[in-house]
Structure formats: C-alpha cells, structure tokens
Amino acid sequence: MSQPERIAPGEVWLVGAGPGDPDLLTRKAERLIGAADIIFYDALVGPGIIAMIPAGAERISVGKRSGRHSRPQESINDLLLAAALAGKRVVRLKGGDPSVFGRSTEEIEHLAAAGVVTRICPGVTAASAAAASGQASLTLRGLARKLTFVTAHARAGEALDLDWMALAQPDATLAVYMGRSAAGEISARLIAAGRAAETPVMVAVNVSLPNERLIRGNLKSLAFLVQTISDDDPTLLLIGEAVAGSAVELRDAATAEIASAL
Ligand SMILES: C[S@@+](CC[C@H](N)C(=O)[O-])C[C@H]1O[C@@H](n2cnc3c(N)ncnc32)[C@H](O)[C@@H]1O
After folding, report:
1. Is 104 in the pocket of ligand 1 (CB under 6 A)?
2. Domains of the chain, earliest start first
3. pLDDT per residue as tens digits for the range 197-226
4. Which residues, 6 or more positions from 20, have their beta carbon under 8 angstroms from its beta carbon?
5. Cα–ligand 1 centroid distance for 166 (angstroms)
6. Tell me, what's the pLDDT at 98?
7. Of 17, 30, 65, 161, which has the fewest CB atoms closer than 10 Å, so is most exposed?
8. Taking the model in full, what pTM does it have?
9. Is the C-beta atom of 144 inside 6 A of ligand 1?
C-alpha cells in the first residue's frame, strides 16, 4: 500500500529532492512540498525546487556547500523536533536520495526518541543522474558486476579509511561522493591496490543543473581532471569500465582535450 501524500500535523517527512533539476523530483515529493508548513533544506537542493515551496510555508536553509559553516547535525535534529512538537507539518528536503550519505538515520532516531513519526520519500541519487547525463550505465554485463557507493569525505586532518583492495577489484564501478578534494589520493590508492591506471573515469559536476560538466579521463589522470572544479560545485567521481561511454560527446572540451592527451 502506498504511503499517504498528506502530512499529519507533527509529522516529519524526509524528502529526496534529486540532483537539482526540478524535473527529476518525484510527483510524491512535489505534493509533499506543497503540503508542508515548514521546510528545512540543504544547500544541494536545486534553486528550481526551492522555488516550488509555497509562499505560505516557512523555509529554512540548514546547510552550506562542502560542509563549510554548515549547521551542526545536532542543531538540525533539534530544529526538526521543535517544529514537529509545535504541531507543524514538516518537510526535511535533502539533495539526491535521503538514504545515500544523507544522515537520515540520525534525524529519524532523534525524532523517534521523542515519539515523532518520520516518513521517507526517495529521490534520484547523484550517481544515477550522473550516469544518465553521461549516457553511461553504472553496471555492465560481464565487466562491471558490482556497484559501490562510497564517500571520500574524511574528518579534517585524517586519512581516508577505506578498503582499497575491495574497491580496486576490476569488476566494480565506484561512485565516489564528496571525493573531489581527495581525488589524488583515491587515484594513487586504487592504483597501488591493483586497479588499472587506464580505468575509465567520469567526473560529474553540478549534475542535472544548467552548469553541468562531465569530464572524462582515466584513473591516473583523476587528480588533474578535478583541478578546475571549485569547492562550491557538487562533484561525483564515477570510476570503472562501465562509465567509459566512448560514444558520448565530451562536454568540457578544454579539459577533455588535455585528458585524452595524458
Ligand atoms: C552529502 S552527499 C549527499 C548525496 C545525496 N543524498 C544523493 O543521494 O545524491 C553530497 C555529495 O553528493 C554528490 N552530489 C549531490 N548532488 C550532486 C550533483 N548535482 N552533481 C554532482 N554531485 C552531486 C556530491 O559528491 C556531493 O558532495
């Protein structure tokens, strides 16, 4: 049975906003946005989606790009709880899918401890949208049997703590979230763990937005490929044979030229 689209007073919905393009929002998400009294949204929620928030609803931004100056998670938990306990219909709008590196569980547990009901509306995650934009598949019969979503976001001053041997398996596609600043380390560690230096890579920036960029190259050139990307631009790294997309036109001509020369 499908869940109801109306929001009961005092209920919280975690809603996936997708990668940015309002056309990639689900119909359910759109109805929930229209039914909310108050909406808390992340920095990665696209401007076209923010524009859908009804004039009468309160809108509260709770995040900045790259985690800089963002509100601590505990503070977001408290804001959600206070709004729910005040009897508001609450929507927590998250970029992509709430279940992928979205810290949903912390919010759900905090609300549940106070007896507040939380429901989830899924969204299109950045990896799916990036593959679609690049006309690529995340899996490939016979060549890419595994798909791993991994975050390369390390705490300040700490090295990445990942299972590089597992990630280096040749039949895996890696979708690396928050991996731009660690691109050089990812490349070096994967190659050291046995992944071929020529493994195809697609760097997807601002996917689904008007300023989208898709930069293609190979694993050994990964650090170079991300050099022109600013801190503010959400960036996903796709690594593996499945993302080669040889028939796809390169959109970032300048970088593509240099990358293909490497
Ligand atoms: C905190 S994670 C949230 C992921 C989100 N829940 C999802 O399912 O896509 C943020 C990271 O997702 C990726 N991301 C989100 N939206 C993106 C977009 N439009 N283009 C490229 N990468 C994106 C980037 O790696 C960004 O640093």
Report:
1. no
2. 12-121 (3.40.1010.10), 126-261 (3.30.950.10)
3. 999 999 999 999 999 999 999 999 999 999
4. 44, 45, 46, 48, 49, 95, 206, 207, 208, 209
5. 23
6. 97
7. 161
8. 0.91
9. no
